[in-house]
Amino acid sequence: MASFTLTVNNKKRTFSAEPDTPLLWVLRDILGLTGTKYACGKGICGSCTVIVNGKSVRSCAMAIQYIGKDEVLTIEGLSEGADHPIQKAWIAADVPQCGYCQPGFIMSTFDLLSNNPEPSDEEINQALQGNICRCGTYTRIRKAIQIAITETEN
Amino acid sequence: MKNTLGRRNFIKLTASASGALVVGLHYQSCMPNKQKAENYGFVPLIQIDTDGWVTLIAKNPEIGQGVKTTLPMILAEELGADWEKVRVVQGDFDTSYEEQWAGGSYAVVLNWDLMRTAGARVRHALIAAASQQMEVPASELTTRKGDVVHEKTNRTIPFGELVVSASTITLPEEVDFRPTESYEIVGKICPQVDLEKMVSGTVPYCIDLHLPDMVYATVVKTPVHRGKVQSFDDTQTRSVAGVTNVIELDNSEYGGRLLDANSPNFVNGVAVLANSTWAAFRGAEKLEVVWDNTNSRQEASAGIFKKFHDQLAETSVERQDGNIEEAKKRAVSYVEHVYEVPFLAHVTMEPMNCTVHFRSDICEVWAPTQNPAALEAGLVKLFGLKPEQIKIHLPRIGGGFGRRFYVDYAMDAAILSKKMGKPVKLIWTREEDVKHDWYRPASVQKISAALDENGKVIGWQQILANASRKTSLGRDGGPAGTEIDEYDFPAGFVPNLQFEYGHVLSDVPLGQWRAVGPTATAFAAHSFLNELAVFNKKDHIDYFMEFLGPPRMVPVVGEFKYDTGRLRAVVDKVRQNSGWDTPLQEGQGRGFAAHRQAGSFVAEVVTVEVGGNNQLKIIRVDAVVDCGLVVNPSGAEAQVEGAILEGLCAALYGEITIKDGATVQSNFHDYRWMRLNEIPEMHVEFIKNDLPPRGLGEPPLPPAAPALANAIYAATGKRIRKLPVGSQIQTG
């Protein structure tokens, strides 16, 4: 066990963990932030996407020992009351079915729009093709991203 | 409209200590053909608080199909509640709720009259109470947005002020349903329950549960189906920091491979318990198990399919109309083709998991299950518990698709919790989830048609051979169970029709899947109809309409018949919406298929483009659906889009293969799922009518694969008779 300090959702969190523990399980089992989901454990489905130092990462495939003092943003840190423009767009488009993969899609979208406020369809495809939605909400995800782009412009 | 459930006293009104109006539902006594009503208690359904907030219990498991929103919408509509002041709470499992499961597109079908009747009766009580207070006849009162309204004098009383007096009202035998044209909730876009929580990561799925003193667990199951543990070395496992226990799971100690017909028991293996999920996963990786595979047939996919092909010649007749042999003799031409579909996994995004707290007096379970009754029955069988010692909570579920009809993972967790004497949260890795699924059965089908001089089908013989779900799930031995159903299309449309079934035994675990049977039979039937259209040099939709014949009631089985006018109408509409009769560019093609299931009618047109290097792209999908009245329009459209994408995705990539008795695939890298860049334009339209609402989760799925295969044929001239499309055409 080793001691780590991370800034998660703007709060300093100090905890003990095995150094090889993926960030996903630190968030879920140690810090109680269960909005970030386990689905493949190999970084191939995107359900565990969080933002580390401004970039989206697959938290299931990133050991805590390599993160150090970085800043982590999870779905819980996006807003207080589901009112981040991306979340509002997701609500307006009524995106989720089972909902399990949606935090990952929202965090991938957050990364995309933070770096590229007006992405083309091709850029949206590129940024989101690491995420899987098993229920097939993709059409509405695309619609929600368009709403978020328009809302952010205004 | 009058309510159609004439039985008395299935709703009970009481005032709670806080003054709220609590409505209990006696479900049994309002179900047709149920006699043992006295054994069942009242279960909560509606609560109206003095502040006017209405709490509705969602009784069925929510797997993403929207039932947690849709059933309460029906209740709220008849009640006249304000959807903005409705709180929906998931009900725990209770036998008294009846039909508390998710599957087969039946939730709305089975609950439509019940929810309306319950809502209407409570509305009546509120109106009766208001009638006394306002001193006006009840007939002049109605309810709207949480108030009882007297339109003549423009007076209103909020529900909250009526709850105490309403609880003393004697409910009438019969109440009127609200007229459809006055609906303010049903048929409207209502924000779905849990929406804000789902986009905030705060909705608790089962996998998110945390209990004090909880132990984390995972499992390593026998890779070879029907294998068991011979011995294991856990030295390395126990050296992983955090690992506390290693426990063998042997189903022979608990009744063997099956709990009951249709209820598979847990699969043999070894469980690793730890103080964190990660420690359990790491410990499991380091486990060294020697497996005993003496019970295995050591199957491989090629051998399984060879058996299926061979079995086409040795069958039982499942349906026989007219005389197929005589029709073949009379035929001017004869067409015959063979189709294959593979095993498919479910890969729900939330992997199998379950939390159990097995105490001395009660076994408390939090389970992502579509089938809590099977879970309860399993616990009764494994541990000799009485139903009253079992409490099952039903958190929101990260996908079902039929996988969670089986409760094997919950049995794992219960055994571990009992042995540990502590709450246990069990999480299967994705790899275990893919390797130990209850797969959609693979099958081989041969269809033969006898045609007259005009190309009309006078004889249809369809033979399906496979290892069946039913055998896999409960009846080892003889040719029990069948994967071709006497209701399957085109039963009722051809004078000489024969369905046959060839039964093969296999170790591969098989089970339900979204629209399971028709995913195979409709793929073959609608691909074959396209081949017949091509053979006759006719437009596919023209040929299909001729095949259906004029609008009429077509008898299918016994008393069951349906209106082909509704099927024709969705086909006409999809022809128009998809631009079926307009030319396409070089390399593009359109394919068509239609389907009837769970009382709903669906027609689909898939448009594809096959470019250079044989690169396949699905450009567009048009679907037209007649499911009767659409209760929840946003949810309904989502179900149609989701089912179609699932059908397309499975057709493109879905394939579980078997080698040396074990499943080859293990995760999303080798069991591929569609991603955003592959999604076609989707155009979904619903036929507007006031007919009783029918099922929607499954019916749009089966036509997707044949429509895709027919589109590929139209674009390239290449016929896909074997799924997945995979390497036959370059995909993705």
Give a concise summary.
Chain A has 5 helices and 5 strands; from the N terminus they run ββαβββαααα.
Which structural class should the secondary elements of chain B be placed in? alpha+beta
Largest sheet of chain A, if any? Answer: 5 strands, mixed
SS field, number of helical segments of chain B: 17
Q: State the domain count of chain B.
A: 3
As a percent range, the share of helical residues of chain A equals 25-40%
**Number of beta-strand segments of chain A:** 5
Q: Can you tell me the CATH topology of the largest domain in chain B?
A: Aldehyde Oxidoreductase, domain 4
CATH class designation of the largest domain in chain A: Alpha Beta
What sequence of helices (H) and strands (E) makes up the elements of chain A?
EEHEEEHHHH
Low-confidence segments of chain A, given as residue ranges, are none
The CATH architecture term of the largest domain in chain A is Roll
- Which two chains share the most extensive interface? A-B, 62 and 66 residues
Structure, described:
The complex is a heterodimer of chains A (154) and B (732). Chain A has 154 residues and is an alpha+beta fold. Chain A has two domains: 2-77, Beta-grasp domain (Ubiquitin-like (UB roll), Roll); 85-153, DNA polymerase, domain 1 (Orthogonal Bundle). Chain A has five helices and five strands; from the N terminus they run E-E-H-E-E-E-H-H-H-H. Chain A has helices at residues 23-30, 85-92, 102-115, 121-128, 138-153; strands at 2-8, 11-17, 49-52, 55-58, 71-73. A five-stranded mixed β-sheet of chain A has the order 2-1-5-3-4, with helices on both faces. In chain A, strand 1 (2-8) and strand 2 (11-17) form a beta hairpin. In chain A, helix 2 (85-92) crosses helix 5 (138-153). The model of chain A has no long low-confidence stretch (mean pLDDT 96). In chain B, the strands form nine sheets. A seven-stranded mixed β-sheet of chain B has the order 11-14-9-21-18-19-20, with helices on both faces. Chain B has a five-stranded mixed β-sheet with strand order 1-2-3-4-5. By secondary structure, chain B is α+β, with helices and mostly antiparallel strands. Mean pLDDT of chain B is 93; it is low at 1-8. Helices cover 27% and strands 26% of the residues of chain B. Chain B folds into three domains: 11-200, Aldehyde Oxidoreductase, domain 4; 207-295 and 346-435, Aldehyde Oxidoreductase, domain 4 (2-Layer Sandwich), CATH 3.30.365; 541-732, Aldehyde oxidase/xanthine dehydrogenase, molybdopterin binding domain (Aldehyde Oxidoreductase, domain 4, 2-Layer Sandwich), CATH 3.30.365. The chains are: A alpha+beta (154), B alpha+beta (732). At the A-B interface, helix 1, helix 2, helix 3, helix 4 and helix 5 of A face helix 4, helix 6 and helix 16 of B.
